[in-house]
Write a structure and sequence with these properties.
1% of the residues lie in helices and 40% in strands. It is mainly β.
Length: 609
Amino acid sequence: MKRWLAVSAFSALVALSTLAGVHAQGVSQPFTYQGYLRQGGAPLNNPSQAMRFRIYNALTGGTALWDSGAQTVNVSNGLFTIQLNPPISVWTGADRFLEIQVGATTLTPRVRLGATPYANTATLLNMFQSGITNPDRMVITHSPDYTNWGLQYRDSDDSFHFLSNGTTVLRIGLGSQQGLQILAGGLQIPAGAAAGRVLTSDASGNASWADLPASASVWAVSGANIHNTNTGNVGIGTTNPTAKLDVRGGLLVDSSSGSLRIGYPSLANQWHFNTMNGGADLQLWENAANTVRMYFKAGGNIGFGTTSPAYLLHVVGDRNARLLNIVNSNTGSAADGVWVQTDGSGSWGVYSVLNATSGRAVYGNASSASGSGIGVYGRSASTDGHGGYFEGRVRIDYNSTLTNATLRLHETAADFARLEFTNTNTARKWHIAGLIGSAVADDRLNFWNSAAGDIMSIRGDGTVAVKVLEITGADLAEKFPTTETLEPGTVVEIDPDNPGHLRKAQGAYNKRVAGVVAGANGLSKGIVLGNLEGSESHTPIAMSGRVWVHADATHEAIEQGDLLTTSDTPGHAMKASDPSRAHGTVIGKAMTRLEKGKTGMVLVLVNLQ
């Protein structure tokens, strides 16, 4: 307990230590007192400081129960320590208060002394003191106020007595009075005990030792055998056997000339425990099957189906069923089925080999039809490690949906989840990294190269950012609904009867011309616009780039570089030879020729004018 005391120019911080001990005669109850003194705000330094200590029965006023007298105390840097020795009669269980006087100044308030000073007053040890009658000697008394409670030695009967208010409740006799008495109607065990005797009692409850009568034996001899005639249980090391033979303690079975057998003696259904190899190994033998079922090898290895276990647990079998089946029916979050740990570098926690041409070396099955169970779980705490490692192809079979993907990469922090591609050619690597941001516009799917950085980024709103975009297709097309089926290479026009739709172009120099159906002659489309939901079956119309177009050169040959326009042949292009009519009807420039009088395919560089 710490408490500040201050008066005049002095202040003190005091602390009460634990008691130093108790005197053998019970004359005084010493304890060590430590404090801190300041004068004028600075720690006091005085190797011969005059001090005085008093104990009162009240915080203020009251009666002084003890006075230390004048004391010379060494105070260094404000700290002092002193042992105080008040008489034990001071401690009656009531609160006590310590008053400290420094020189002529008495510090206030007094310090309350609580339960700690009484720790050693509850029991009093008295050696060779007078008891309630001489020459009896009390050894231990309850307290100074209860001298007839505790342990007492009496010369009158050479015994130790445990007293309760002066009355003996337990006596232990010495010398000629050897024996133990539990009084007040209790058990008496006098002298007379000897090896082989039993404890008996008379009608008054007095116990005595006696020899076991011959008629009391429960064992009988039959030739070379001995048997028990008792109809109950036999106990070894216990007086309360719970079985026909109840052994409490060690049991030695010498299996060099026999075995420990469990089963039906008249039937083959027996199990034998035998030691092997001079007692070094232990085996469990199934008698009916005439085989070893379990084998304990010296050194700790255990074998099932083998008598030469090479591992701590070695299982060998030849059956078309599971060799080892572990079921944990507990539904708790820590109810593991199998826990395997290895501390070896380069070692395998679980190692499985499939020697057949088909099957599964490791199979994980989360059999519940709902929930988020995991069939096989791997984890690495190291950023350089791998939660899963595969050598060979990886196959995933799953009927995925928008809410349940076939392959899911989950980043445990608010960061990119990354899929990495490497090989042995170089240290360079590719990442496909996905980020779920705080909003859809913050979502990203990035293609990253360790040498070039981010190559392409796809945002959650559909925006794509790419450094360089190279497209293998040849044209820029957009999907449009059409009012008739159109084959690739057909020249199309805006359908005047169906706004927003296209149809096969009709008539020469048609100002409604809209482009050419892309994809003719196997020339792939480059970019397709307008591929919106519901427009999957619409027709891609090339509006720029190279496409093959159906052309009609019946009246005039088409040469490379000629402008092409619509012709009187529906869906066909022709040479635009009349400049006054060509404006607004040009499809583009021919890149291949077509002889006069023929119809066929011409490669055109689409550029609507």
